[in-house]
Amino acid sequence: MTLVATNPVGRAAGINWRAAAARLAPPAVGIVIVLALWWLAGFFLEGQPRFAVFRGFAIGPTFAAFAQLASSGDAWRATAPSLSRVLQGLLWAFLIGAPVGLCIGSFALLERMMQLPFQILRMVSPLAWMPLAVLAFASWDGAIVFLIVAAAVWPIVFATAAGVKRIDPLWLAMARNLGGTTFSVLIAVVIPAVAQDILTGLRLALGVAWIVLVPAEFLGVTSGLGYAINDARDTLSYDRLTALVLLIGLIGYAFDAVIAALIRRTQWTPAG
Q1: Given pLDDT bands bounded at 50, 70 and 90, which one contains residue 100?
Q2: Left if phi > 0, otherwise alpha if psi is -120 to 50, otherwise beta: which for 48?
Q3: Phi, psi (deg, nearest 5) at residue 218
Q4: Could you tell me if 65 and 243 are in contact, meaning their C-beta atoms sit under 8 angstroms apart?
């Protein structure tokens, strides 16, 4: 009889490698396809004299400009003001949207009263509020934060309200039968139960806020990613413009990934 040595750790590691490869292969293939199409588009531009001014959009000049942005510190100098505005806007959107969503989800009459006006306001482009924001706020920073709040508050409101309405009524009845007050039930049951929904609304709000930020920074301010893109356009620095677009996408993806990880980790069920 021949004994064959086994290595459970190695076998488990092999399974993990295969699982990791299966998980990472599709996005890797997608990135390769996008880069290939980008390279082909750049190759086409290089072969057309009438499009010579747009050659900066090609993959080579873009990555060279991206490296220059990172090494010179220009990337951080452009990003820091935008991050400050977005984070302030999201904070205010959360502080307004989560309580409003909790109230709407908890009281059916309030939901029927506010559904129509909220839906109408939600459909208004945040940039349509720009003239009012400029008059109402002493600084452009304040106006931009207001526009971000106007865009980001609605996903949080509606996601939170939907989460409250999905709570099992038995959970609330049990909490009240055990002597819970309205406030204690809110803290111990309602908020933990809708935490995933609030984070989902925040994730959607982040995407909307990040999109609104750039056009909002086209006007008035002299800092931020939107201003940097506008400046690159005016100076025909298309390689720098495309590098800034790539930077915006990467930062937005990083924020989205963080919130998605929090959503996966936030799962609550009542004890007992």
Answers
A1: very high
A2: beta
A3: -70, -20
A4: yes
Task: State the chain's mean pLDDT as an integer.
Answer: 83
Residue 61 in 3-state DSSP? helix
Residue owning tokens 């021949």: 2
State how far Cα 200 lies from the chain centre.
Answer: 10
Q: What is the pLDDT of residues 230-246, one digit of tens each?
A: 888 888 888 899 999 99
Band (87; pLDDT cuts 50, 70, 90): very high
More confident residue, 61 or 46: 61
| 62 closest CA partner among 241, 259, 188 | 241
Residue 95 has pLDDT above 90, yes or no: yes
CA neighbor of 91 nearest in space, from 36, 45, 143, 149: 149
Token pair of 119 as six digits:
């839906």
The CA-based angle 195-210-133, given to 5 degrees, is 100
Q: Could you give the CA distance from residue 129 to residue 146 in angstroms, rounded to a whole number?
A: 9
Which pairs count as long-range contacts for 129-133, CB under 8 Å and 24+ apart, including other chains?
A: 130/216, 130/219
Rounded to whole angstroms, how far apart are CA atoms 124 and 268?
Answer: 35
Share of the chain above pLDDT 90, in %: 31
What SS3 string covers 74-107? Answer: HHHHHHHHHHHHHHHHHHHHHHHHHHHHHHHHHC
> Residue 152 above 90 pLDDT?
yes
